[in-house]
Amino acid sequence: MSAPVFLITATVLQGVQVNDEVVLTGPEGRHAVSALRINIGEVIELVDGNGLRARGTVARISGTDTLRMQVTEIAVEQLSALRITVVQALPKVRHGELAVDLLTQVGVDAIVPWAATRSVTRWSPDRLEKARAKWQGALTAAAKQSRRARWPVLSELASTEVVAEMITGLIAGSGTAIVLHQAVLTPVLEVPIAGVGKPNDLVLIVGPEGGISDEERAIFRAAGAVEASLGPGVLRSSAAGAVAVAVLSAARNWGRPDMGGSRL
After folding, report:
1. Domain for residue 87, yes or no?
2. Rg of the chain over CA atoms, in angstroms?
3. Residues 70 and 43 in one domain
4. Which of 25, 8, 9, 21 lies closest to 65, judged by CA?
5. How does pLDDT run across 141-187, given as a tens digit for each residue?
6. Is beta strand 82-89 parallel, antiparallel or unpaired with respect to 110-114?
7. If 0-12 CB within 10 Å is exposed, 13-18 middle and 19+ buried, where does residue 16 land?
8. Is residue 146 within 8 Å of 105, Cβ to Cβ?
9. Which residues contact 222 (CB under 8 A, 6 or more apart)?
């Protein structure tokens, strides 16, 4: 079984070396000591969410919320060759948190909540921060569960116009933007990815349960996005992005051969 992961402030890990002791306290310390009942001698990992990981053994425990870990190994999780951002249209209640959970587990680099025309859920100004906090909570839990050292960035709620601007800027920087749509014949693995063989950025746009409107599709195509499908079936909005990230990551980021005749 892999060691449990706990988030710690980046400044605490800066300059840490093997054999140093690092203090874990506060909510994360309480979770480790009181909820998980971590004991002296157990192996744990501390991450800063930006790629830095310190592995070690618990040397001391104080009270109900503090432990000291002696560092045995330090590592930096590198950026993926293909950095993937998913623009996720707001799905039905609770499905949004599921989408974030799955995206985080499969290794997405950034998540952008999108107020699509056909989104059933709406983040009104008075509940915007609360709704976003729920997505952040799902991200945090999934990042720790999947043992990630580099956590995805959760952006602010974006309008269709903001997403279009994002696509335009991405294309100008030699990136690629793909709109997932079930009616398109081109498979996602057959979309030419700009800059093959070097680090690059990709944006995947996932529509709501009611689908992306024709007007939105036209706006995104005009900005430079291409459309592609994940197969003959129709996936839920909460699952489509994670499936696409997994497929593309298996071809580009996970050291496996291209699949299904992919031209990536």
Report:
1. yes
2. 20
3. yes
4. 25
5. 999 999 999 999 999 999 999 999 999 999 988 899 999 998 888 88
6. parallel
7. middle
8. yes
9. 164
What domain range includes position 27? Answer: 5-76
**pTM of structure:** 0.89
Residue 261 domain-assigned (yes or no): no
Number of domains making up the chain = 2
Q: Which two tokens stand for residue 147?
A: 């043992």
Same domain, residue pair 104 and 168: yes
DSSP symbol at 72:
E
**What is the sign, positive or negative, of the torsion defined by CA atoms of 142, 78, 207, 196?**
negative
Q: pLDDT tens across 181-235, in order? A: 988 888 888 888 865 555 589 999 999 998 999 999 999 999 999 999 988 878 8
**Matching residue, tokens 């140093």:** 20
Residue ending a domain, among 60, 76, 92, is 76
Residues 226 and 108 in one domain: yes
- On whether residue 264 sits in a domain, the answer given is no
Q: How far apart are CA 98 and CA 142, in angstroms?
A: 10
Q: CB neighbours of 49 closer than 8 A, spacing ≥ 6?
A: 7, 10, 143, 149, 150, 151
Amino acid at 115: A
Rounded Cα distance between 88 and 150, Å, is: 20
Assess whether 245 and 219 both reside in one domain: yes
Helices 128-145 and 95-105: angle between axes, nearest 10 degrees? 40
Residue where one domain finishes, among candidates 19, 54, 76: 76
Q: Are strands 66-76 and 21-24 parallel, antiparallel or unpaired?
A: antiparallel
Q: Same domain for 146 and 220?
A: yes
